[in-house]
Amino acid sequence: MTWKEKLADQIPVDLGREIDAYETQLELRRLGKLDEKVFAEARLRRGVYGQRYDNGQRWDGFKTQQLAYPQAGLKKGPDTEWDAPGMQRIKIPYGGLNPKQLEVLAEVAEEYSDGILHITTRQDFQLHFVHIEDTPTIMRRLAAVGITTREACGNAVRNVTACPLAGVCRTEAFDVTPYARALAYFLLGHPDTQDFGRKFKPAFSGCEEEACGLAHMHDLGMIARVRDGRRGFKVLVGGGLGAVPYQAKVLSEFVPVEELLPTAQAIARVYARLGEKQNRARARIKFLVEKLGIEEFRRLVAEERKTLAPDPRWTAYLPQAEQFAERPLKPPQPLNGERPPGFEAWLETNVYRQRQPGYVTVTVSCPLGDITATQARQLADIVRRYSGDNVRTTVEQNLVIRWVAEADLPALYRELVDIGLGEAGAGTIYDMTACPGTDTCKLGIASSRGLARELRARLADKFYTLDTAVKGLKIKMSGCFNSCGQHHLADIGFYGNSRTIGNHKVPHFQVLLGGQWRNNAGRYGLAIGSVPARNVPLVVERIIERFARERQGNESFGDFIGRIGKAEARRMIEDLMQVPPYEQDPSFYSDWGDPREFSMGDIGVGECAGEVVSALQFALSAAERLNFEAQLAHEAGNFAKADELAYQSMLEAALGLVRERWPDCPNEPAVIVAEFKSRLAGIFAPSLAAYLYRRHDQRPPLTAEATHRLIEEAQLFIEGAHSCAEKLQQEKAAARAAIWKK
User: Fold this and answer.
1) First-residue to last-residue Cα distance in the chain
2) What 3-state class would DSSP assign to 439?
3) pLDDT digit string (tens) for 551-582?
4) CA distances (Å), origin 273, targets 193, 270, 302, 706
5) Which domains does the chain possess?
6) Global pTM?
7) How far, in Å, CA of 531 to CA of 499, rounded?
8) According to DSSP H, which parts of 275-397 are helical?
9) Distances in Å between the alpha carbon of 143 and those of 94, 117, 546?
C-alpha cells in the first residue's frame, strides 16, 4: 500500500483534498503542462523551497553535497527543480507539539532528508535535502498527526508564533495559547488572506516587558491585557525586520477577545486590497501602514470591520479558551536528593520555575537549531515519561518541556545528557541564533552558521568564567541583510555582506550593537561597521571584555553602548575592519567552514580590476563614512543633520558608480540622480535604487523613527552599490580584454 492509502482514514478530508491537488500540480509541472511560475507559488504555499548548494556552484557542488549527505542522495543531474533536493518547511502554530508528532517529524527527517530537524526563529521545523517528488508523502504523514505545511511560505499568513512559556509564565496576563491556535486555524486558507503581495507574520505575547512573542517586530502583534476583568489584546500592526526594520504601530490599546478574529480579518482585507502588488520590495504591510499613517489605517480597518458578514468561528472557541489548561503528568514535588555532575550549571540556565508551585519548564538546547532524528525520537520518549505531551519549539531555536515536576530534574538531566541534549547555557551568550546562511539559502552571502560554530567553540572554554551580565548577552547573526537570524534585536548582531580587495572578494559581516530582545523587541540596533568574517570573533571578544570591565552598576549592554556612543564603539573595532593583502594572509579570503576562496557565484574579476576598483572603492568608502556620521547625528538627536548625511551618502555612492561610465559627471544631486537612472538601469537593484529616488524627491519627517529608517535604507543602498561595482568591474575588464585581443 502507498502512504496515501495507508493514511486515508487518518487525514482530515479538507487537508487530504489540498494535498491531492498539490500532487496533481506536481505531475502537471513534470509533464510541462503547468507554468513554472504558477507551480512555484503553489509549492511555496505548501512550504516547498529550492535551496542552495555549495556556494552556488553547480555540478561539483552537488557531488560534494552527495558525499556530505548520503541519505539525501542525488537522483539525477542538477539541471531542473526535479534533480536537486530542496527544503520543506513545516508549520507548528505557537510551537506546540506532542510526542507522537515529534516522532513522525523524526521519521520523515530520517527517511526523506539528511536526518536533521532544524528549528527556525519562527517556531517552525525545516527539512533540508528533500526531493520534490517526496513532498506529498511527507505532507500526508504529517497531516495524519495534525501537522500542516500549508502556507509555511508564499504570500500568505505564516506561522503564528507565541511565547513558549504561555500558560506557565509568572508575569503573563493570561495564557495566549488558545487564542494563538484559534487565529492560526481561522486564517489558514481563509479567502481574505489569499491575495497578499507578500508574507504576513502574526505573533502573541502574554506580557509587555519580556521578549515573549516579540510583538513589536511583527506584521500583526497581540499582547495580552486584562481590562475591567475582561480579557483582550493590545494590537500592533506594521512591524518587521527584513532589510529595513520597522517598529509596529499601535492599532488599538485594547481589543476584547471576541473581536480578535474579526479584527485580524479586517486587517487582512485592507492589506490585500491596498497593499503593493508589483514592487515586492515595498509589498509588506509595514510599508502600507507607513504610507497611509496609522490613523488612516486604523480608520480603514474599522470601516472594513463594519462590512464583515458575521462568522460563528469568531466566538465559537471562546468558552473552551476561557477554560483551557494543560494537564501535568505527575503531582508537584520539590527538588531534593543527589545532583549529577554538571547539573547545577544546567539548572541555572535551562530551568524556569513555573507560576504553578512544584513545576518547572526545561529548555532543551539545540545548537544552531539542529536536532537529529534519533535525538528527536528519544526526546519524545523522555517527554512522555516526565511531562506527558507538553513540548514546544522556541524562537531561539530550542525546545522546551513544560510541567516537569521539580523532583524529576536530576533524572531528566541524566537522560538528556545521555542523548546529547544536556547542554547548559540556554538563553545566554552561548545560545546563539543563526539563519541557514550560505549552507542552504540561495540569498546567503556569508556563512552565518559557520561563524556561529566558531564563536561557540571560542566561548566554550571561558563561558563559566564570564561575568553574569556578559553571560546574558544576545548574539544573533544572519547570512545577509534580510534578518532571518534577527540580528537587529541582538545586543551584538551581525549580517553577511562582501567587499572586494584588489582582485579578490572577502566575506564580511556588518556589526550591529544595541538591539533589545526584551520588551517584545523594544529596540533595533544600528550598524557601526563591516568587519571581515575572520575578525568577527576578535570583535566579539573585544566588545564583551570592555563591557565586563567598564560596566557601571547594573548597567545593561544597550545602556553601556549608549553611554560610550557609537563613535567610540566604532573606534573599538576600526583596526579589525582592515583586510591584509591576499599574499600576506589568504585565510581572510575564505569563509568560516569553507576552505575555498570566497566567491559570489558567477562574479569574476579581470586583471585590470584593481586599478578600476580603487577609485570607485574610494567613493564607496566615503559613502559609508557619511552614513556612519549620520548615525552619530541621529544618536545626538540632530535628525536634520542625520537626514542630510544619509542622503549625501547615497549620492556619493551613486556618483562613484556613474563616473565609471561618465567620468566627468558633475557633483550635483539632480544630475547624479538623473544620470544614475539612465546609465545604471538594469544593473543596479531597482528595490535599492528606490531608496535614493524617494529621498531625492521628498524629504521624510525629521523624526527619530523616520531618520533611523533612512539611515538603514542608505546602508542598503551602499551595499547595492558594492554589488553593482562588481558588475562594472567585469564590464571594464571585458572591454579591455577585447581591446588587447584586437
Assistant:
1) 68
2) helix
3) 999 999 999 999 999 999 999 999 999 999 99
4) 10, 5, 15, 25
5) 3-143 (no CATH), 168-314 (3.30.413.10), 343-418 (3.30.70.3340), 430-602 (3.30.413.10), 603-742 (1.20.120.330)
6) 0.85
7) 10
8) 285-292, 294-307, 313-316, 318-323, 343-350, 373-386
9) 17, 17, 51
